[in-house]
Design a protein that fits this description.
Layout lengths: L1 E5 L2 E3 L5 E8 L8 E6 L6 E6 L6 E3 L7 E6 L4 E6 L8 E9 L2 E4 L3 E5 L2
Parallel strand pairs: 2-11
Antiparallel strand pairs: 1-3, 3-8, 4-5, 4-9, 5-6, 7-8, 9-10, 9-11
Length: 115
């Protein structure tokens, strides 16, 4: 199992970014996939989840309406579309899957929202 995030960067408040999580070693549609983030000096927190099969999604309450998780089964990739970004969205963003008792994480991609 391997997860590789990309798409982070520096963006101004109100801007948008789309993060990607390219998966290998398994099929993303067969497992729940999650995005987490870790703001500077804070604990890691769950951002969004897309469940296996039909891909029902759920979000951290404070992010509903701004963030969208999706997946492309053909590319075996999960995305996180982030709109109207705010400085408090700054942090390292991680892709995650939990399979057969093991947690798998990518290396993370840094998102910085600043003028």
């Amino acid at each position: 199992v391997q997860l590789v995030e990309s798409g982070g960067g520096l963006v101004q408040p109100g801007g948008s970014l789309r993060l990607s999580c390219a998966a290998s070693g398994f099929t993303v549609s067969s497992y729940a996939m999650r995005w987490y983030r870790q703001p500077p000096g804070k604990e890691r927190e769950l951002v969004a989840i897309i469940n296996s099969g039909p891909g029902i999604t759920d979000y951290r309450d404070s992010l509903k309406g701004r963030f969208t998780i999706s997946r492309d089964n053909a590319k075996n990739t999960v995305y996180l579309q982030m709109n109207d970004l705010k400085p408090e969205d700054t942090g390292m963003y991680y892709c995650n899957t939990f399979q057969y008792g093991s947690d798998y994480w990518g290396q993370g991609t840094q998102v910085t929202v600043s003028l």
